[in-house]
UniProtKB/TrEMBL annotation:
A Pfam family it matches: Rhodanese
Domain Rhodanese: 15-99
Cited InterPro entries: GlpE_sulfurtransferase, Rhodanese-like_dom, Rhodanese-like_dom_sf
Superkingdom of this protein's organism: Bacteria
Organism of origin: Ureibacillus yapensis
Protein name, per record: Rhodanese-like domain-containing protein
Length: 100
């Protein structure tokens, strides 16, 4: 699985790239803020909600530290999706946040 640093992600966000970010953290974690544009799909819901995703797009997977997003990414890759895991997750991310 490919990985991306938070600096790389921030540069893409600053360039207004069209990104597909999936935050797999739990509801209480997401209340602390998400990366702008991220879609919240808790890790446990990934298998049932994979049908909502487009296999022609690349998805950036995010969690608190990078482990749960890697697990979600491995599952999605096994289903034919293109994924990138954010190294260090939200603990490493120091960019802009949005609150839902």
């Amino acid at each position: 699985m490919k990985t991306m640093t938070t600096d790389e992600l921030i540069n893409l966000l600053d360039a207004n790239e069209d990104l597909n970010i999936i935050d797999v953290r739990e509801d209480f974690e997401v209340e602390e803020g998400v990366i702008p544009g991220a879609v919240h799909i808790p890790l446990g819901s990934i298998p049932e909600r994979a049908g909502e995703l487009d296999k022609s797009k690349e998805y950036i997977m995010v969690c608190k530290g990078g482990v749960r997003s890697a697990n979600a990414g491995e599952y999605l890759e096994s289903q034919g999706f293109q994924v990138v895991n954010l190294e260090g997750g939200m603990m490493a991310y120091d960019g802009e946040l949005e609150f839902k």
